[in-house]
Specification:
By secondary structure, this protein is α+β, with helices and mostly antiparallel strands. It folds into two domains: 279 residues, Sandwich (Jelly Rolls); 99 residues, no CATH class. It has 14 helices and twelve strands. The strands form three sheets. The chain has an eight-stranded mixed β-sheet. A hairpin with a 2-residue loop joins β11 and β12. The termini are far apart. The relative contact order is 0.15. The N terminus is likely disordered. InterPro entries: Phytyl_CoA_dOase-like. It comes from Kockovaella imperatae. This is Phytanoyl-CoA dioxygenase. It holds the Pfam family PhyH.
Length: 403
């Protein structure tokens, strides 16, 4: 029997002669009931330390030790994470992924650039990563150089992904969001029915969603709730707009408390809902939208400007790595211990610079390998001065701007 694109549920819907979504509320509800009863098999996720509410939970420090080992562990872990987001429950938690100090600094910076954050029930700061990179490049570098963050992004999206972030702070009294799926298809509301069903399903492969806790998030603060396996519901972008589906989903959602530095990653097709904050302190997090290079980000991003801002940090880190004599996390530069690792440098470059060269105006020039990530790597390898790097970044940005 032909299987669906998710690899889980046999589905004639995806291979119907009808290109658009054909809603059958009764059948769709039966499928959702089946999906809600699925149980996560721990043997499929050997690197997870626990399964909570059908969601695999990983230890950040344990994953970091494995990927620093330099053997096949990183590829094996990426296979597992991809399976979790694709054919599995569609959501995973990584405990202690970020150093708490990095999150505290980011949150303090958020408070300085977000007017009214202490009194508003809900404040969101768009393009937060860009603002932090330009104002606090060292703090930005320490945060976005996280090799685990880079590994999950690559596991789901491959090369050339683009990270955009929005900081978010919610206090008691804020309005509760509806249960929903995420960008891109959700942006179209009811008009999403005009897109082919195959596009509804393919939507999940264009984006990775992530939320990193910047404050403690006990259950009373309302951390995000998820319905594991709902990412396999083909008609979900339309179904979840119906009240009967929301009523069915709500009592079956999983939720767990988060500590500062914990991260939740999820397939954008997974039904989710931020909880209600019942305590009189902010629940603050950094919301990531990571887009495939073949997708479009919701927010604009000055990648050239950000790369220039962190260039001194990149040069210093490259120097440390080149001068190191240790292995793993035991590294020494001029007799001083450092924990800088090449994966951190790569993670920072990929999180900041543009990794895809299109679109360009092909009437003016032929494609050539002049994407920002390659420019930065070449500049580090060949020891370019600041002026040369900035000029090449400006030329690369102009090629796309004038396309």
């Amino acid at each position: 029997m032909v299987q669906s694109i998710t690899g889980m549920e046999p589905s004639s819907k995806l291979y119907s002669r009808r290109r658009l979504v054909q809603e059958n509320v009764e059948e769709d509800m039966e499928l959702l009931k089946h999906l809600s009863e699925l149980k996560t098999d721990a043997s499929h996720y050997p690197h997870a330390k626990d399964i909570v509410g059908n969601i695999p939970v990983y230890s950040g420090p344990e994953l970091l030790n494995l990927i620093y080992a330099g053997d096949s562990s990183r590829e094996e872990i990426m296979d597992e994470l991809h399976q979790c987001l694709f054919t599995g429950p569609g959501v995973l938690i990584i405990k202690e992924m970020m150093e708490p100090e990095m999150c505290v600094r980011a949150h303090e910076f958020m408070k300085t650039i977000t007017p009214g954050i202490e009194t508003s029930t809900h404040k969101r700061t768009p393009r937060f990563g860009e603002k932090q990179a330009k104002a606090k490049p060292e703090d930005y570098a320490g945060y976005y150089s996280n090799p685990i963050l880079a590994m999950v992004c690559e596991a789901w999206l491959g090369l050339g992904y683009q990270i955009t972030t929005q900081s978010n702070a919610i206090r008691a009294g804020s309005d509760q969001q509806e249960i929903h799926r995420d960008y891109h298809m959700s942006h179209w509301g009811d008009r999403c029915r005009q897109f082919p069903l195959a596009t509804h399903v393919a939507n999940q492969f264009l984006t990775l969603q992530c939320a990193i806790a910047h404050t403690p998030q006990p259950l009373t603060s309302g951390p995000t709730r998820f319905l594991p396996y709902s990412n396999h519901h083909p008609n979900g972008y339309l179904n979840i707009r119906r009240q009967e589906f929301k009523d069915f989903v709500k009592p079956r959602m999983s939720q767990m408390p988060l500590e500062v530095g914990d991260a939740a990653f999820f397939n954008p097709s997974t039904y989710h809902q931020p909880g209600v904050n019942e305590q009189d302190v902010h629940r603050a997090m950094n919301l990531f939208q990571v887009n495939s290079c073949m997708s479009r980000c919701m927010d604009t991003k000055d990648t050239a400007g950000m790369t220039k801002a962190i260039w001194p940090v990149l040069k210093q880190w490259h120097k440390e790595i080149q001068g190191s004599t240790g292995s793993g996390t035991e590294r020494f530069v001029n007799g001083t211990k450092t924990e800088r690792h090449p994966l951190e440098l790569e993670a920072l470059i990929n999180a900041t610079a543009e990794g895809y060269e299109y679109p360009i105006n092909s009437d003016k020039e032929a494609p050539s390998p002049r994407v920002e990530t390659d420019i930065v790597r070449t500049a580090l390898r060949e020891g370019w001065d600041d002026e040369k790097l900035y000029k090449m970044l400006d030329l690369s940005a102009a090629r796309r701007l004038n396309a």
